[in-house]
Amino acid sequence: MERHIVILGTGGTIAGTGHDSSRAWHYDAAQLSVDQLVAAVPDLAGVPLRCRQVAQVDSKDMNWSIWQALALALADELRRDDVAGVVITHGTDTLEETAYLLHRLHDGSKPVVLTAAMRPATAPDADGPRNLLDAVRALRWAEAQGHGGVAVVMAGQVWSGLHVRKAHTHAVDAFDGGGASALATVLPNGELLALVDAWPRSGGAGWSRLDTPVPPRVEVVTSHADADGVMVRALWAAAPDLKGVVVAATGHGTINKPLLEALRGLQQGGVMVWRSSRVARGGVVPRDGDEFTAVEGLTAAQARLALVLHALGARLNESEG
């Protein structure tokens, strides 16, 4: 018997609606259910699917409790023999964070594919239906190829959950891999063209990493001209539970001198300090003698989650990439 696909809905622009199709940018996110999204794609009518609503939020409001609910749903569905894999509908604003988190937690036994939309469902040129169809096709292809792990499908491209990031604020093809190649392309006829030999291996840290009611506090600060460290000192004073800070550094991980001194004070006080970059591509490559840990290939938002997981005891394995 053919195994079916589970589609988990979390809201986002893909489920958004507006009142004026000529002003597609003016809409409310997370208005339609995942069942309604599937019903709007005629080509999915004959596909064995089951829908489940996990959350209904604008993804800018994504939080730990929703990730906990998503992890519970994934653990429940992926253990079933009759489930081929899971598609997740999501908003674009924090898609790179959820994709990275799931990449780190999933054991890679079955494919998990996230998708989203840059235009609401009521827009004349809505991209959500095509993205959802492509995500289902990508999952079926991944299952047939023996690929597990986490991927994101947007605008006909399949990206690794490890590398994906939002690279444009409003373009339909808003996502890329931060310098990493797409895993595959969805062709106009629905077939997939593989662009790499294998998907990145998932972290396998386990869904139970999210069991803690409140995550360790990790914040992001930015290095920029005139940064004087005041925000860092104010943060430490206001949040005595602070466990870590990720610096969105300039260039290849450089940090303004006054900010650097403030961060040294944090580290001496037992707060972990990691470096990412505010530059869109390239990341920060670790070097001998680094004062602060360099998080290679991640956005600052993804690096924050990496540090949260580190504080929870999940080791970052180089082989995950």
Which strand order does the major sheet show? 2-1-3-4-5-6-9-10
CATH superfamily of the largest domain: L-asparaginase, N-terminal domain
Question: What percent of residues adopt helix (DSSP H or I)?
Answer: 25-40%
CATH topology of the largest domain: Rossmann fold
Beta-strand percentage? 15-25%
The count of strands amounts to 14
Can you tell me the CATH class of the largest domain? Alpha Beta
CATH architecture of the largest domain: 3-Layer(aba) Sandwich
Euclidean distance between termini CA atoms: 34 Å
Count of the separate structural domains: 2
Q: Return the average pLDDT rounded to an integer.
A: 95
Q: What letter string, H or E per element, gives the SSE order?
A: EHEHEHEHEEEEEEEHEHEEH
Q: Which term fits the overall shape?
A: globular
Brief overview, please?
The protein is of the alpha/beta class.
How would you summarize the topology of this molecule?
Layout: E1 4-11, H1 34-39, E2 49-57, H2 64-78, E3 83-89, H3 95-105, E4 111-115, H4 128-145, E5 149-154, E6 157-160, E7 165-166, E8 175-176, E9 184-186, E10 192-194, E11 217-222, H5 230-238, E12 242-249, H6 257-268, E13 272-277, E14 293-294, H7 300-311
Parallel strand pairs: 1-2, 1-3, 3-4, 4-5, 11-12, 12-13, 13-14
Antiparallel strand pairs: 5-6, 6-9, 7-8, 9-10
